[in-house]
Every structure is written in structure tokens, then in C-alpha cells.
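stage 2 :: seqdesign
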């Protein structure tokens, strides 16, 4: 069975949380769980460039096979929603450039997958992640919620792919 490397991203113009999981021989390896911080005083084009360069390097160095995102939703600020579209577009561009799969999940789907309850709070999701990855206690405690959100997004993508693969075996 070939290995898969998943990049889950919670994009933002100040902080972008991301995590990278590798699945190899039915084992899950956490390669990275971090955030990209951008200066809000920089121009929009500079921040988009920083975002592209960062994730382009990850795609090349780590050989990402799958990108996982949370579906976007229109919150209180339409301008923020539109600007986040630029970052999401970068991820779609990278997926095309490097022949990666890209999948999106609704926030409720991610919460349901992690906690068993689609209406779970961010704290409940973070607690579930700390139970699954005890080595991340300090990282998740001190990190922005964007980091735990990204890890939850990534896990949802991994589990969905594994479920689809199992189902495909029965259909054949």
C-alpha cells in the first residue's frame, strides 16, 4: 500500500494553522503541527506570496499527496471571507501543480468525526486531539486554535479516505 501525506490547513491572514500527517503501512505519523504567522501590516499581495512560498516548499520537501480544508462560510465580515478565498485559491493551485487530491469538509463534519458531536466546541475538539496525541499537550495548550483546527481537519481527511478505501474493497 502506498503512503499518503496529508496537509490540513486552517487559512488566515494573520495566523494559518496547518498539520501534516503521513499514513504508511496502516500507521499514522504526525510530521508537523504548526502555524504560519504573517504580519498584518504587510500588503495583501506580500502575505499571499508568503503563504504560497511556505506551502509550495512543504509540497516539494514533504511530497504532499492530499490537501484537506474546512469549507468556507460567510461570517461577520464579507471582506475577510473574500480575502480568505485568495489563500484557498493558492491551495487549489498547488493541488493542481503537484497532482494532489484536495478535499473539503464542513465544520460540523469535522467536529462529528473528532468528538462524535457535530456541535462540539473548539475546546471539546482540542481535548479530543490531546487525548489522541498526548505528545502534543504542550503544543496544543500554547498554540493558537488554528493549529488544533488544522489537525482536526487533517484527521477528518485521513479517516474519510481510509473509510472510502475500505468501502471500495467491498464494492469490487
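stage 2 :: out
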Amino acid at each position: 500500500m502506498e503512503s499518503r501525506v496529508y496537509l490540513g490547513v486552517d487559512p488566515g491572514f494573520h495566523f494559518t494553522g496547518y498539520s501534516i500527517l503521513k499514513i504508511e503501512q496502516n500507521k499514522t505519523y504526525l510530521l508537523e503541527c504548526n502555524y504560519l504567522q504573517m504580519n498584518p501590516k504587510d500588503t495583501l499581495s506580500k502575505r499571499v506570496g508568503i503563504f504560497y512560498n511556505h506551502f509550495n516548499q512543504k509540497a516539494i520537501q514533504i511530497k504532499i499527496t492530499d490537501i484537506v480544508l474546512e469549507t468556507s462560510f460567510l461570517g461577520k465580515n464579507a471582506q475577510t471571507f473574500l480575502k480568505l478565498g485568495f489563500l484557498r485559491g493558492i491551495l487549489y493551485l498547488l493541488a493542481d501543480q503537484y497532482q494532489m487530491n484536495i478535499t473539503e469538509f464542513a465544520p460540523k463534519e469535522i467536529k462529528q468525526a473528532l468528538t462524535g458531536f457535530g456541535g462540539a466546541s473548539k475546546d471539546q475538539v482540542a481535548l479530543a486531539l490531546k487525548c489522541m496525541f498526548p505528545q502534543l499537550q504542550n503544543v496544543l495548550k500554547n498554540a493558537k486554535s488554528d493549529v488544533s483546527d488544522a489537525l482536526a481537519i487533517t484527521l477528518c481527511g485521513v479517516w474519510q479516505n481510509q473509510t472510502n478505501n475500505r468501502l471500495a474493497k467491498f464494492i469490487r
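stage 3 :: structure notes
- The mean pLDDT is 88.
- The beta strands are 4-10, 15-24, 27-37, 66-70, 101-105.
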